[in-house]
Design brief:
Blueprint (H helix, E strand, L loop, with lengths): L7 E4 L5 H12 L3 E6 L2 H11 L2 E4 L5 H15 L4 E4 L14 H29 L2 E6 L12 H21 L4 E8 L10 H6 L2 H6 L9 H12 L10 E4 L10
Parallel strand pairs: 1-2, 1-4, 2-3, 4-5, 5-6, 6-7
Helix pairs in contact: 1-8, 3-4, 4-5
Length: about 250
Amino acid sequence: MGLLDGKVALITGGARGMGAAHVRLFLEEGARVVFGDVLDDEGKALAEETGAVYVRHDVTSAREWERAVALATDLYGKLDVLVNNAGILKYRRIHEMSPADFDQVIGVNLKGSWLGIKSVIDPMKAAGRGAVVNISSIEGFIGAEGLSAYSASKFGLRGITKSAARELARHKIRVNSVHPGAIDTAMAMNPDLVNEVDAETFVKSMVIKRFAKPVEVSHVVAFLASDRASYCTGSEFTVDGGLLTGAGY
């Protein structure tokens, strides 16, 4: 019996990296999955490989949110889970970053997640319950040089999570955030970021001295999406190998 048997899930940013790991694990745990992204080639390939349903989905567009949610509910009759995974990172110091770049990061990471929560309220109310999992970051607790926009978006997502949890509890909709640390994904390997970070010092600051596999985050996400997390809402779950406990970071 799977952890998510009978659940219908919508996952954003699902074409690669952590999102693709979420898609695969949710399917293994019995969920029916619709996932969105703007990476059409990767998205279509993952859908063909796994049997999940892919939809092109720009999370900054309210209209595209309506389309993605409608696809899930039309196909499967309900929507139980939203994973707000889509996110982008631009490494720029404040004096180097353009307002357009700042707006883009905030638009995808913060506004996109807010639009997602707004878009799933009615179908989750109709289903009688629901679970939203927002993928934040350890940068939602600390600020790192060159990541002002990213950190702002992830700090902000913590606030949206807590406000939404309070608003939606009356409808039996739970809202939690997950805060990954050093995860082995293409985003973490961003050349601008890698070139600026002292890798040796960074690894020394870790308690578990390695990068995580994306699926190690997915297991926490799946738990929060499941009925086993029935008393968890408005909470923050770090998946960082103890990185935030290290004085060096």
